[in-house]
Amino acid sequence: MKNRWIKLIGFFTIVTMLTGCDPLLVLDPKGPQAEVQAKDIMLSIGIMSFIVLIVFVILAYMLFKYRASKQSPDYKPPYIEGSTLVEVICVGIPVLIVIYLSVVSVDSNYKVESTPEKYEHEEPLIIYAATSNWKWHFSYPEENIETVNYLYIPVERPIEFKLYSYGPITSFWIPQLGGQKYAMADMLNTLHLAADYPGEYMGRNANFNGKGFTENTFNVTAVHQDEYDEWVNDVKDTAETLTEEKFDTLLEPGHVGQSTFNGTHLMFLPPPVHVGEEVEAAISEDDESQQNKN
Amino acid sequence: MDYFERFAIPHPSPAIYASMVAIGFTVIALIFVLTYFKLWGYLWREWLTTVDHKKIGIMYLISAIVMLFRGGADAIMMRAQMAVPNNTLLDAQHYNEIFTTHGTVMIIFMAMPFIMAFMNFIVPLQIGARDVAFPRLNALSFWLFFMGAMLLNISFVIGGSPDAGWTNYFPLADNEFSPSVGTNYYLFALQISGLGTLMTGINMIVTILRMRAPGMTLMKMPMFTWSAFIANVIIVFAFPVLTVALTMGTFDRLFATKFFTTTDGGMDMLWANFFWVWGHPEVYILILPAFGIYSEIISTFSKRNLYGYKSMVGSMVIISFLSFLVWTHHFFTMGQGALTNSIFSITTMAIAVPTGVKIFNWLFTLWKGNIEFTTPMLYSMLFIPTFTIGGVTGVMLGMSAADYQYHNTMFLVAHFHMVIIPGVVFAMLAGLHYYWPKMFGFMLNEKIGKITAWVIAIGTLLTFMPMFFSGLDGQARRMYTYTESTGFGIWNMISFIGAIGFTIGFMLIVYNVYYSIRYSPRNIGMDPWDARTLEWATPNPVPFYNFAKQPHVNSVETFWDSKNNGHELFPEPYEDIHMPSNSGMPFILACIFFAWGFSFVFSMWIPAILSTIGIFICMALRSLEKDPGYYVTVKEIKETEKKLRGVQ
User: Fold this and answer.
1) B359 to chain A: nearest residue by CA?
2) The pLDDT of residue A224 is above 80
């Protein structure tokens, strides 16, 4: 019996050691949005563990105290209808917890759906991220360059990803910078992210889109603004120009590796015009602010 | 020859060829056995044409168990493929087909028939009825479900399996991205079995509302009947949505309409919305009857009445209402904005409240009880902690901002397995042990049963707990492999070990059935569990007319009262019993439906038109047929009862 416990403890130590070195990606945020989400996750894990614990304790108590082997053989359990007070407690406490979590959830919703507070005064970088089976096309309209299957982003600056798809629904996800959002054929979605620290991050399509789904990934490199500018200039000097024919061949199903181009496909193949709710709001805000300026 | 090329598998492998051979041999062996032992007549008279709710229940049960093994085989293949990094056991296409089949089979063709089995078998007995309201419709329901299941199951040897996920999201499932006939199989298999489910829904509602024994008011119905009633109300509201969505999908694929396409004005998220408007209530269709079974078992083996009966009923009504208001939480990441997400986030978390009430009521049913650890009770007691873990992670997923990180990951996979397996599968296994004597007249072995329960519970935790971690570490669901540098290896290895545990558990169940058939005593009497509700007031196994005399009900636990508080259960004298007669029509009609579905899957228009005509002819024949049923005389009843009960 003792032996078994030692083995069990040993097993769990190994498991924690093996995995303990690297924290789980989602709980190791490198951007403000991922931080909001990681905080929510840890908070809810805390509260939920408490509830699980209560259920376990009550269950253990009931099973221990009222098991048949502990009662006298002629024990007849009473008839108990139920009590209003107990029901009120059983409803009341969960309702309070749900209200609290709702407040947190609603607050976080508005946070992750807008430019990160920290970098509100910085000018956002707009990147169009489109998928085709099974690739990512990233267009930088300001810089007039385009990359395939990799991203270069400046740190400490808000980034607005405009998501859409040349095919099935996909989902743009960089776990350490923030949660995912869908890219669809008939709608343009906006995802607000930002990176706090330079580094290499894993990005992928998280929504199943057929045979090449598993390899539908991209690399994200976050660098300081000056390095980023350097990279942009470098691309402008060396990369070939993206033509319509070239883009058409890129759209064909398959895996193509990474590549870089001068110019974007937005010129000859504009993104969907129908925009998601929050994009519409942003546009109308822009209009208003411009009118105010005028 | 070109005509037959369509039946070829687009992506064959040795395993599929081996399955073809195995299926061929099984069919030949079955035909041989049936012929050699001259069982064709028995099969036709006693099973294929039966309208007896108990036999239909048993056929549902057998189908569910067979499908459990089919879906389980898929699961173990997936876990084996994922056990180590860069594994090449399966390629991407096979993996996609396998997880699609696994999900579809487990939800539609395993969990659904399992609850249908218990609803069919138990509900009429619990309310003191002799059959369901429409016995022949009930047979049709079963055979439609069965043919739907068969249609999906032949897909992997004829024409190719569906491969767009069990959610079958368009536009991925459209011709452009899924050119094989697999998705057609999915659409027609679900359509045909869904028709059967909808009919059951109507049938059960009418049965429960109209056929209760004298004295059984709505608030004196046993909890399982209540749960079945509410589940069937949800069926009637939810399944038409699926029917419409499947029809639109079928039109997109076969007749080039543009409902869900990426171009020409199609809306690519429309399918997902329809699917989950049905799909979320579907979860509660599965879990409410499971909760009903737990309520019966926990009360029986605590030797106490169910705590908080009224709040149990109330919470189910609230759950059924809320289940229609949360579908958007399956795609918080669609981009519907913070306001919409907030609303659905709150409705989602709100479901935790009535569910929590149920958990606490079960805990308080144990209070002051006299708890006996039988196998069904052990499953129920293992259900509470494991389901609580699954349930609270559901609240976590309901927080929409955080869901952006959980969505489409193994965290989600872990969550829904941790609710469905303890919630539904444990309940079905508990119900299987609990009602086995009622169905077959002998008990399953308790010792093997208890070992099995522990093995399966530990298997559940080992398989699915690691997925919470790998999900948070960035492992998306439906990936067929991963590299070593991701660090997912250890989690998936533990999962694989857990899956082996599951396999051992299910093998033990088979062994238990075999062992109990051979060695279990047959003279167990009417009431082996010292139970409380009306279904136990009949002999085991139950005679075809259920109750020899009309029972009279005084309370929720009328059988208990008749044993302990002097309630007179059968005050009426014997009377002739009116019974429905058997009919081959449901089976034949369902066979034609199978041909109909198969023809559409392969776009074979002439057989499709012929079978459509056949369906209408069958319906017309049924409408013109006069079937008065038949009477069982008092003399016959007395003889049967004497044989079954020994004395009386």
Assistant:
1) A55
2) yes
